[in-house]
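Board notes, transcribed. Complex of a protein with zinc ion.
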Amino acid sequence: MRTFREDVERAVSYHGHLCSGQCIGVKMARLGLKTLGLDPDVNPKTFMSLWNVTVVLLTRLES
Ligand SMILES: [Zn+2]
């Protein structure tokens, strides 16, 4: 299983920069996969989808 840091680095390369929304998004995505019993290494698209949803929700909450 990837570490939190590895997932953040992956999110940074996808998103383009490091921001607080990404750290929270990665934590929420990891928690979501764990809750659903899914392995992020086996389900990378599900991980990125959960991460995207969290970042979108956080962005809307901030505005
Ligand atoms: Zn950002």
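The chain has three helices and no strands. Residues 4-62 form one domain.
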